[in-house]
Amino acid sequence: MALVVSWINSAISAGGYAGIAGLMAIESACLPLPSEIIMPFAGYLVSTGHLSLVTAATAGAIGCNIGSTVAYLIGAHGGRTAVLRWGRYVFFSEDDLTRFDSYFARYGSAAVFISRLLPVVRTFISLPAGIARMPFIKFQAYTFAGSWPWCFGLAYLGLQLGEQWNKTPAVQTFFHRFDWLIAILFAGSVAFYLYRHVRPRV
């Protein structure tokens, strides 16, 4: 976990807005790179004066569109067969696809907007949208409209924490207490996915 966080921080520190967009593109292309780490660190850099909050959020949303386009095209041109063939590499099963299909069928195009405001779901909704051949321009508009508030909210959280972090060492000590909790939650998430998708079917 520490290596992932360090790599994300280095990419944003070195690449700035382009680094944010690139990382969020990876996350939105159904790869396990959490936006809950990416955008708060961008917000921290806002607190130091290196980035603008609105521009950082916009860069994150643009990255979401880029990565989501990749997933959308896989769904649109490869269909369920391609999604199921390659989905296992990101722990995405047939059961997951069925649930997302049902969600998309129930809410239609609005599902893309709604999902972008939700953790986990936001990463994979592009696949059923592509399979359903949702109009591409509408897909892009809904993806950006849902992604921007998500990116802004996480960056704003990072901004607020960053300002407090810089004000007093006591805040740093307080947040360091959660390092083990974050590691445990991350390990637990990985174990849960492995249990669901890698264990032998009975």
Would you mind describing this structure in some detail?
The chain is mainly α and 202 residues long. It has one domain. The chain is 81% helix and 0% strand. It contains ten helices and no strands. The longest helix has 35 residues. The radius of gyration is 18 Å and the shape is elongated. About 6% of the residues have low confidence.
What distinguishing features does this structure have?
202 residues, 81% helix, mainly alpha
Decide which structural class fits the backbone: mainly alpha
Structure annotation, total helices: 10
Q: What gap, in angstroms, lies between the N and C termini?
A: 32 Å
Poorly predicted regions are 170-182
Strand content: under 5%
Q: How many structurally independent domains?
A: 1
Structure summary, number of beta strands: 0
List the helices and strands and how they pair.
Layout lengths: L1 H27 L6 H13 L5 H35 L6 H14 L2 H6 L5 H4 L1 H6 L4 H32 L1 H8 L2 H19 L5
